[in-house]
Amino acid sequence: MSWSMTSSTAADFSEDPEVPIWPRLIRLAERWTIAEKVDGTHAVIVIQPAEPESHAGPGVSVVRCPDGRRVRIRAASRTHWLVPETDARDGIGRDNFGFATWVAAHAGELAALGPGRHHGEWYGAGIGRGYGLTERRFALFDTARWKPNTVPDGVPEELGLVPVLAECEGPKLNATIARCLRGLMQHGSRLVAGAAAKGVIARSAADPRLALKAYIENSGKEAVQRQRGHHAA
User: In angstroms, what CA-CA distances link 207 with 30, 81, 139, 194, 229?
Assistant: First the structure.
């Protein structure tokens, strides 16, 4: 049996929005960053250039970056766009522990992060273990882009970085993770002083989408779970 692609079939393929891409393999020797695993909920601040006709709407703020560029700012969870609680009460989408409400209230300050998808963990009062906090905070994942001394001035005080515990090459990854877990067990969280830590996340420097997680309660059972995807947390 033989077949040929008609022009209409070709047109259907050309309209497909995404090319299926297989991620490249990484070398075992490449570097990994081990950070504390935050017990919260995955959240994203999406900042995009604003078109001249762009305007604010439910869950969308239009503000200016420090350099004068107009940008659109939205909040998202792992799988959904979010809207502030006031809009959610009117039946327009939903919020996630008040994250979209916080983003909307601080959009002008958050614009300093610049265009991009800024993934992190929203944690604190009423979320997961809570860490004994009475407020909520946002910890950015991208420690390759941001360092403690490079987070822009003027961002909300609730915004910080996940604590980096160590860096290593692939062959030393298991031993380094075990050492980091022991340190967290002995000294507690580096994120919130005096609180218990949950575990660690190891991210590949070659492909940040590739992450491994290990929890303190399972560290003796070598329970390191592989997590793959754009929003690994």
Answer: 10, 25, 20, 33, 10
Residue 221 domain-assigned (yes or no): yes
Burial environment of residue 124 by CB neighbours within 10 A (0 to 12, 13 to 18, 19 or more): buried
Confidence of residue 150 (pLDDT cuts 50, 70, 90): confident
CB–CB of 179/14 below 8 Å? no
> Does residue 166 belong to any structural domain of this protein?
yes
Picking from 98, 127, 157, 116, the residue whose alpha carbon sits closest to that of residue 38 is 127
Greatest extent of the chain over all pairs of C-alpha atoms, in Å: 70
Full-prediction pTM beyond 0.85?
A: no
- Is 90 exceeded by the pLDDT of residue 95? yes
Torsion of CA 84, 90, 94, 99, to 10 degrees: 20
Q: Is residue 92 part of a domain?
A: yes
According to DSSP, residue 88 is labeled: H
For residue 152, the domain's CATH number is 3.30.470
Give pLDDT tens digits for 202-212. 999 888 888 89
Q: What is the pLDDT of residue 1?
A: 43
Q: Domain of 64?
A: 27-228
Establish if 10 belongs to a structural domain. no
Number of domains in the chain: 1
Please give the average per-residue pLDDT across 140-159, as a whole number: 89
Cβ neighbour number for residue 157 with a 10 Å cutoff: 9
Angle made by CA atoms 99, 100, 105, in degrees to the nearest 5: 100
Rounded distance between C-alpha atoms, residue 26 and residue 12, angstroms: 34
